[in-house]
Amino acid sequence: MMIEQPLEYDDVADHAALQRRLKTPICLDESIKSVAIARAAIEAGACRIINIKPGRMGGFAESIRLHDLCASHGVPVWHGGMLESGIGRAANLHLSTLPNFSLPGDVAASRRYFDPDLIDPPIEVEADGTIAVPTGPGLGVTIREDRIENATLKRATFASQLSTLKAEV
Q1: Cis peptide bond upstream of 137, omega within 30
Q2: Of 97, 92, 69, the residue nearest 47 (C-alpha)
Q3: 10-30: b or e for each residue (b if 16 or more CB lie within 10 Å)?
Q4: Closest alpha carbon to 82 in 59, 115, 49, 48
Q5: Which residue has the higher pLDDT, 133 or 83?
Q6: Residue 78 CB: number of other CB atoms within 10 A?
Q7: E-assigned strands of 68-146?
Q8: What's the confidence (pLDDT) of residue 115?
Q9: What pLDDT, in 10s, does the model give residues 10-23?
Q10: How far is it, in rounded angstroms, from Cα 120 to Cα 52?
Q11: How would you class 71 by CB atoms within 10 Å of its CB: exposed for 0-12, middle for 13-18, buried for 19 or more?
Q12: d(CA 43, CA 16)
């Protein structure tokens, strides 16, 4: 259904040339680090699908802006994970409910990389390959402070310089 990132991550021009020669859509993944890069890639015809990874985009606000840009250009998106804990996975699930996330994503079960994970209930993949979106308050999961404590190797405290900065401005 697609060819994901066949060329170098920063090679938008050659992706555009290749996409013009192919019937199969090219999906840009590693190339998409900002909304501006995505806009340039779409305008150049470098892809017909985009993979959105919030960790690479700099967070959820930018990921939503990218989703909206792609939707306005008729470019479907899918969600890519980056080894998040259950906290990040829960947030990713909520993001992937936006309407232009029309292709299957790669959000995995929360215990895939972290066992035990830092949340309850865990994110589970159903037998049919779907994942239920958590429905509780906030992200829909509870952060397990005891598990965070057990996973903590080192702590550091940093003094705030905010009051000094305000005085100097």
Answers
A1: no
A2: 69
A3: eebeebbebbeeeeeebbbbe
A4: 59
A5: 133
A6: 21
A7: 77-79, 119-120, 142-143
A8: 85
A9: 999 999 999 999 99
A10: 26
A11: middle
A12: 9
| Rama region for 70: left / alpha / beta (φ>0; ψ in -120 to 50; rest) | alpha
What sign does the CA torsion over 159, 160, 163, 165 have? Answer: positive
pLDDT at residue number 120? 93
Tokens coding 9: 């991550």
C-alpha of 122 from chain center = 19
Does 49 have pLDDT greater than 80? yes
**For the CA atoms of 121, 86, 127, 104, what is the dihedral angle to 10 degrees?**
140
Token reading at 99: 């309407």
Identify residue 35 by its one-letter amino acid code: V
- pLDDT, tens digit, 9 for 90 and up, residues 80-104: 887 888 999 999 999 999 999 999 8
Sheet order of strands, 49-52 included: 3-4, 26-28, 49-52, 77-79
Please write the tens of the pLDDT for every residue from 51-81: 999 999 999 999 999 999 999 999 999 998 8
* pLDDT score of 127 more than 90: yes
| DSSP string of 36-90, one letter each residue | HHHHHHHHHT--SEEEE-HHHHTSHHHHHHHHHHHHHTT--EEE---S--HHHHH
